[in-house]
Write a structure and sequence with these properties.
five-stranded mixed beta sheet, 23% strand, alpha/beta
Length: 253
Amino acid sequence: MNDAELAYQIADTAGRLLVALQGSGLFEGGDLGKAGDRAANAFIMEVLRTKQPDDAVLSEEEKDNPARLGAGRVWIVDPLDGTREYGESRTDWAVHVALAVDGRAEVGAVALPGIPLTLGTGAPPAVPEAPAGRPRMLVSRTRPAPEAVALAERLDAGLLPMGSAGAKAMAVVRGEADIYLHSGGQYEWDSCAPVAVVARACGLHVSRINGDPLVYNRADPYLPDLLICRMDHADQVLTLVADLRLETSTAKG
C-alpha cells in the first residue's frame, strides 16, 4: 500500500468507525463529539504506528512531540474535523489524514462519512464546471469571519454556511461552491489534508490569503488562514483581500 492508498484507507475506515459510534446511541451531543475524537484518534495513531513507524505524527488530539521538526515525513491528522457537527448528527464533518514531506502537503485524504464520500490524492477528483450566476462562497455556519463576509459583499457572492474546514474545502472540489476563504484562525491539521487533495484537483487555486504557499510541520502549528477557489476567481479575491486589509489597517491607524 503506497502513501496515498494508506491515507485513503485510514480516513475512510476512521469515518466508518465514527458513523458506527454515532449510530450506537451510547453517546449524544458534546459527549458524542468527545468520544468520537478519542476513538478516531486512537485508531489512526495505531495504524500509523503499525504501518509507518519511522514517520512523525502531528495530531490535534495528541501531545505535540518536538522531534517531528527534524523529520522529513510527518503525518498531520485531524481525527474528527467538525466535532460540533458530528455531535449534532449533521453531515458537514470530516476526517483528515495527510502526509507532509519537507513542509509540503503532498499526500492526503478527506473522508466525508455523513454523505458518505472519501476523496484522496491517489485518484484526484475532477472539478465540475461552475454554473452561471453569482459566485458561491463558503463561510463558517457558527462564526463567519468578518473578512470573508466583507469579501462576499464586494464580489456579490452568495453565502453558503457550512461546518468543518474539510467539508467546506471538499465542497469547492465537488463543485458545490466556488470560493472558500478562511481568516478566523486554524491549525495545520485543519488544512493539510484538504490542501493536499485540492492541490491535485484540476482547476483550483490554494494558498494563504496573501498568496503565499501553505507550509507545514512548523514549530508553531497555528496556520490561521486559507484560500481555496476556482482559478478564475483567484486574482480578484487576492486583490480584494489585500485592499480590505489595507483599509482596515488605515482605519485603525
